[in-house]
Amino acid sequence: MVATMSQYSSPELDPLPYEKDALEPHISDQVLEWHHDTHHQGYVNGLSSAEETLADNRENGDYAGSADALTDVSHNGSGHYLHTMFWENMSPNGGGEPDGALGDRIEQDFGSYDGWRGEFEVAASAASGWALLAYDPVSKQLRNIVVDNHDEGGVPGSHPILALDVWEHSYYYDYGPKRGDFVDNFFEVVDWDDIADNFETVAEIYE
After folding, report:
1. How far does the chain reach from its first CA to its final CA, in angstroms?
2. Structural domains of the chain in order of their starting residue, each with its CATH number
3. Fewer CB within 10 Å, N side or C side of the chain?
4. d(CA 206, CA 140)
């Protein structure tokens, strides 16, 4: 029996919030086309397929394929959600430094913006997947987090507010092996207004 749509999320790939050439020269339109239209779409497709498998297995009472599907939900779901945040965290009008409540919290939790950025750049260098700035609701503080692949590592229960994809497909066409140059250029397009909104959303819940 085919599962009904209400039994799984039926994820979709949203369009980019800007034109594909809007982040040039920092990120090329070719990279955005491949990254969004091919890589991100692949995670959406993988998540949808895995959720459909799980729903069908529940309906049929046959769980032989559920273990692989559960792993696929974690991998593809995390890939989908983090990529969605990554696109929204950038803007052709980005750059600069955070101010307001987010700027104050970064200074409180890391000592200074430079202290935060230096540590975040180390996370971006170390990760085999993602560098995240996340809110930890247990300690009620911001943390830099290294995530391998899409779903390995992190602090359970934490809420990412900034996501930087450091998989090679994010930068190799534009920068070759110079990941640090890509990270520097990411900060030329980072949208602190979007990240501040993310921070305020989680802070209102937990503080």
Report:
1. 46
2. 28-88 (1.10.287.990), 100-206 (3.55.40.20)
3. N
4. 8
